[in-house]
Design goal:
Chain B: It comes from Paenibacillus brevis. The complex is a heterodimer of chains A (538) and B (303). With 538 residues, chain A is mainly alpha-helical. Chain A is built from 21 helices and no strands. Chain B is built from ten helices and 14 strands.
Amino acid sequence: MHPMPKLFASSMRLLRFQLRQDWLKLMLWIAGISLFSIAVGYSLPGLFPTSAERQAIAETMRNPAMIAIIGPSGALDHYSIGAMFSHEMLLFTALAVAVMNIMLVTGHTRGDEEEGRLEMLRSMPVGKLAVLSATFMEMLLANGLLALIHGIGLGALGLESMSVAGSMLYGVSLGVVGIAFAASSALFAQLAASSRGAISLSLAFLGANYMLRAVTDVSAPEFSWLSPLAWGYLTEPYVKNSWLPALIGLLYCGGILSAAFRLNHLRDLGAGFLPQRGGRAHAKPSLLSPHGLALRLLKATLISWIIALFVIGITYGSVFGDLDSFFEGNESLELMLPKDSTYTLTEQFMSVLMVILAVAGTIPVLTAIFQLRGEEKKGRMDAIYAAAVSRKRMYFTYIAIGAGIGIVSMFASALGLYLAQAAVMETPIDLGTILLAALAYVPALLFMLSIGSLLVGALPRWTGIGWLYLVYCFIVDYMGGLLQLPEWMKKLTVFNHVPKLPVESLHWGPPLITAVLAAGICLAGAAFYRRRDIIENR
Amino acid sequence: MDTIVTIRGLSKRFGTFSALKNVNLDIRAGEVLGFIGPNGAGKSTTIRLLLGILKPSSGTAKIFGEDVWSRAVEIHRRIAYVPGDVNLWPNLTGGEIIDLFIKLQGSGDVARRDELIGRFELDPSKKSRTYSKGNRQKVALIAAFASDADLFILDEPTSGLDPLMERVFQECVEEIKAKGKSVLLSSHILSEVERLCDRVAIIREGEIIETGTLEELRHLTRSLFQVETRIPADRLSTFPGVHDLEQTERKAVFQVDSEQVGVVLEYLTGLGVMKLESMPPTLEDLFMRHYEKQGGRQGASHA
């Protein structure tokens, strides 16, 4: 008999070590998400004091488009503060929690492995599976803490419709979604052969889950039980308080995690299970230029985003059919439309959807421009700038790619939206209307690009501000109406200044001003970028 | 002789930390300049300033008579660079990266490239994520030596190479030197510097503390002597320039400052020299001496 190998040796020591590295990051994530939840919970009673007001909101939720976006609710007839809170907040918050888990897990598994840090650890008396188990324990602690803070914080608001038990379940629901995605990422980290591959797979899995549940929530709710993301809101905190989905989530984690452990044990350090393609001995001519290199580096990411945006467009477009037939039978809703409006409710919803598509479309734009800084950080710009390539050329190469991807993004999601709604609606919206509504956001995307480029030029260590601004825009534009945020907060998001076609009429002023501002900020960024040190920061 | 690189009063501060203080340095046409100094002394900072990747805090640096910051792109058409830490794109193959570097630099020839790939024994069809440190360095070296640059800036280019590849590297440097190219070679492998370099500059804590040919530098330091005399040389320890004396009855091993050699030899001759061996100081001795003298470590005692 072989002695049992000590696969988990030093797990606890590694856990303490990782916590020491991560505590600030963890605190920021957990505090950010928790404070946001509690602040919304705190402000809802003031915003919607009477049940009549809440019921008015509930009526606008009673349609497939809203179900696809924010999820279903079993309490639309009695839309209490608690029901409203868990309906409007849970799915959205769970997405953020899932992203937190994906980033931290892939960082400590594939990320550390790729940078050679794992090799150092493995040369010490540390078990083969210790890093993975320490990482998962860290995520258990983080999600547990997040659940606890939500439970206590929301429960402490003392609202009649938000019981302590319901608040605890709300927190647990978020935590369960979190560890479900932590476990999934741990599995993907074994399958992929690189840190980037692991992050892409995990995020794609999250996106697919969001889309899957959007479709099943609308047309076949029982199938939503298959999605780890749906286990969050299926507990229906404050409404049914069902612990079953959380339990399913824990079982799922156990299964996925043991698979991840098994695969981690089987594979060599640095290897993955998905096939690695060989390469060519000499470069194709298309690679041999600054833009050729940049496009090659970004290719996989950008193509995945275009496909993802097209699919998001299709998903939203596919619920338009249900939306149409729903409105036909609902006279009270039609009365809510302005009398002189020549636009259908479907078109009004489309203009709301466009903001979400634009926020999603900004992600590849920022990814592209921040690649310029990412390459610098990894020490790869030295070799480029030691060759006969100017800073200006590299900078504007990335600006051009960012601008191009912004246009393509909006185009792809508009096309997906058009095709899907044309297939399901009796009187579909025409392509021109949809395209114009989508392309009206392009100047806003360029503005986001310019903010990104200014950060790369002037504050290269603080490019995270670009993402924070995008999150701010998303929260304000997505929840601004619900939270009745002050006007100045709305004015600070660039998407707020985009004409909401086709419902609003097309004014050329705001898009034009936005585009001019974007160009100016880009140039300022270039001036900073050309004058500063290239800083390696691994 | 033409001067290719002129550095005058060059300083670089990172916040409050002075990485480089008032550096003056020249590289002449056709020479190989060795650039040595302990870790963190400012070698790579100097090189990154020369490449226009960092902006000088004060002072000037010129290559081919042009300012390294404002005329970077023009200068770089005639420069080849090999960094110490070669960071490559994990998803591209070695061959693709070599082609990219050659193309971006602007000069280079395919036959020379293929010849170098053969000599360095690199498999160019592998993704660079599978390369060891040595193989990553080969990628940068092949791209650099395949170019038709006039100045080669090599920052610890051989730290990951095996002895066979190290020899190929030295051959390559000798070849470009024979073509009249100039080389700035920063290295910790002092035997390599001794073999390849015409002149040496030593940097410590951001300051150039010594420049000159190896001969000139040797003159500033000590030689090692091993002697055997008929009469015991018992007054040897009283000479001011003698260090690290180890003495048995008639044998002595010691170091002596260059300027004291004459006096010591005179004394020894009177004692009836039976055997005398002298070894010039190696670059390592020079280096250690500078390092210890200024590093605040104890005196001149070293192995």
